[in-house]
Amino acid sequence: MIQVSQLRKSFMTPVVREGRFSGIRTLFSRDYRIKEAVRDISFTIGKGEFVGYIGPNGAGKSTTIKMLSGILHPSSGTVYINGDNPHRNRRKVARRIGVVFGQRSQLWWDLPVKDSFDILAEMYKVAPADKRRRLWELAELLSLEEFWQTPVRKLSLGQRMRADLAAAMLHDPDLLFLDEPTIGLDVTAKRNIRQFLKTLNLEFGKTVLLTTHDMDDIEELCSRVMVINHGALAYDGTIDELRGLIGLPTVIRVTFRGTFSVPEEASAGLSSRFRVTEKTRHGVVIEGNRQEATAMDMLRELSQWGDIDDIHMEEPEFEDVIHRIY
Ligand SMILES: Nc1ncnc2c1ncn2[C@@H]1O[C@H](COP(=O)(O)OP(=O)(O)OP(=O)(O)O)[C@@H](O)[C@H]1O
Question: pTM to 2 decimals?
Answer without folding.
Answer: 0.82
